[in-house]
Write a structure and sequence with these properties.
Strand 5 and strand 6 form a beta hairpin. This protein folds into 2 domains: 93 residues, F0F1 ATP synthase delta/epsilon subunit, N-terminal (ATP Synthase, domain 1); 43 residues, no CATH class. It is elongated, with a radius of gyration of 27 Å. Strands 1, 2, 3, 4, 5, 6, 7, 8 and 9 form a 9-stranded mixed β-sheet that branches. The chain is an alpha+beta fold and 153 residues long. The protein has 4 helices and 9 strands.
């Protein structure tokens, strides 16, 4: 059986991956997040893809979805919703240019705020008006009666 010499140093790419890469996530409203990560996963227009340090240079379009960021430190992953955009990948840096972006911890707050605003909107007040409901019920009843009177063959 052949014997191999011991590995005294890691190949350059393995060492670079261990150091991570710099990520910057920007939207039209400003910077959403930046820092060093070990990996980032993106919703590409042709499918989801991941990036590690020393990735080949790349420009890609993003579709709506979640960008998952895995920080170098033993922190939980961060998720950022993007409505689309572009990403530039260089061997040591990734720049995400999102049309609109929102961090995952803000998503629930944003949904609750939108629901509250929708509930107090003039349109919601009009749609929940009992008189409006009666008119809709009467129109539905008339439509049913009309359909029943048609000669079905």
């Amino acid at each position: 059986m052949a014997s191999f010499p011991p590995i005294t140093s890691l190949p350059g790419i393995v060492a670079d991956v261990a150091q991570g890469l710099s990520v910057q996530i920007l939207s039209l409203t400003g910077e959403i997040w930046s820092g060093d990560v070990r990996e980032i996963s993106l919703p590409g227009s042709e499918g989801r893809f991941g990036v590690l340090a020393q990735h080949a240079p790349l420009l890609a379009t993003l579709r709506e979805g979640m960008v998952s960021v895995f920080p170098l430190a033993a922190e939980p992953p961060l998720h950022v919703y993007v409505s689309g955009g572009h990403v530039e990948v260089q061997p040591g840096k990734v720049i995400v240019l999102a049309d609109l972006g929102l961090r995952s911890e803000n998503l629930d707050d944003a949904r609750a705020r939108a629901a509250r605003e929708a509930a107090v909107s003039p349109m919601a007040a009009e749609l929940t008006n009992p008189d409006n409901a009666k008119v809709h019920a009467e129109l539905a009843w008339q439509r049913v009666q009309h359909l029943r009177s048609l000669p079905w063959k």
